[in-house]
Every structure is written in structure tokens, then in C-alpha cells.
Amino acid sequence: MTTSMNNFQFAPLRSLDDFILESARFQLPNFNDFEKWGNRVVKNLLYYQTNYFVLAAIELIIIGLVQPMKIMLGMFAIAAVLYALLMTYGPNKSPSTQQLQSVNKYAVLALLLGIAYIFLYMFDAVLLVLFAVLLPISSIFIHSSLRLRNLKNKLTTAVETVGIKNSPMGKFLEAMDMMPDSFQ
Asked: In this record, what's one Pfam family (predicted)?
């Protein structure tokens, strides 16, 4: 499923008034009707996708500016653990890595324990990185779950159907097989 870049389009940025201020209406979804709730979430993801990307970028920038060193240390700790796990248990271990592990078992164990110690020592930084990643995801999901669609939203979505399929969120939802039937 390859698409040329000239077909790739970004959805327009919706007004702040429509996104969250005066004309926006919010209501808890019907938790018993998952299909209707999921439809609301998907349609809002498609309609407000550029707003959601901007919101996520703003949240990530704010967290990065508040604690830049902890973010960098947390990313380093996560990368070190992932690297150690891939080198130790990865599917494509090189013969030199296998030989090193068989000859220097205690050195490899010490290295893994050292990396585990660094990870636990920087656990607050790791949690901050996880928070920085999960905050935009959760705020986008909460907004798309609570935001009621108005007539303008429905009409604009109907008009932009072709462009929405070639947008970043449209490609993501299509890859996740979550595109609504009206768009296929």
C-alpha cells in the first residue's frame, strides 16, 4: 500500500472556537454502545487531526522545557535497556556476540546488572518520558471521546472524504483497519 507524496494532504487546522471553546459541545459517550462511541472517536480523530497534532506538539514541548535533562536521561535509560535486551535476546545475534556471551558470562551479567541499576536509578526520568508520551495520547482520546459532532463537522467531513483518506490520520486509521464504512 504505497502512496505517492503528491497525493498526501494535511487536513485544515480547525478554529479554536470549534475545537474547544464556545461552539464546542461535550458530553460523556454512551459506554454501553461501543460502536457508536468508537464511531465518534474515529470521526473526531479525522476531523480534528491537525489540531490534535498541534496539541500533542505543544504538550511535548512544554514537558520538554520544564524538565529537559530528565527527559534526555529517561530516553537514554530506555534506549540502554532496549539495546541490552536486543543484544542479549534479539533474534539476529551476531556470532561475535554469541561468542562473547559464552566466554564472558559474568561480564555480560555484570553489564546487564549495571544497565538495570542505571534504569532503576533514573526511574523517575523514565516515568517522566512515559508521561510525556502518554499525556498527548490520553488528552487526544479524551477530547475525541467527549466532543459531540455538530452539523458543520458532519458536512465538512462528508465534503472532505477523499482528502481525509490521504491524510496522516486517515493513513494511520486505515493501517489499523479502523476507517469508518462511509470512507471506504
From this structure: PRA1
How confident is the model over 77-101, as pLDDT tens digits?
999 888 877 877 767 666 766 666 6
Here the cell at position 111 is 553489564
Q: Specify whether the CB–CB gap between 48 and 19 falls below 8 A.
A: yes
Domain boundaries along the sequence of the chain: 12-48+147-184
Nearest-CA neighbor of 47 among 81, 65, 24, 27? 24
At 179, list the grid cell. Answer: 476507517
Minimal CA–CA distance to 167: which of 39, 50, 58?
50
Report the 10 Å Cβ neighbour count for 26.
11
- Which of these, 164, 148, 144, lies nearest to 156 by C-alpha position? 164
Tens digit of each residue's pLDDT (9 = 90 or more) over 115-172: 888 888 999 999 999 999 999 999 999 999 998 877 666 666 655 555 556 677 777 7
What are the angstrom distances between the C-alpha of 110 and each of 68, 80, 157?
Answer: 30, 14, 57
Contact 145, 29 (CB under 8 A): yes
Which H/E stretch holds residue 137?
Answer: helix 123-146
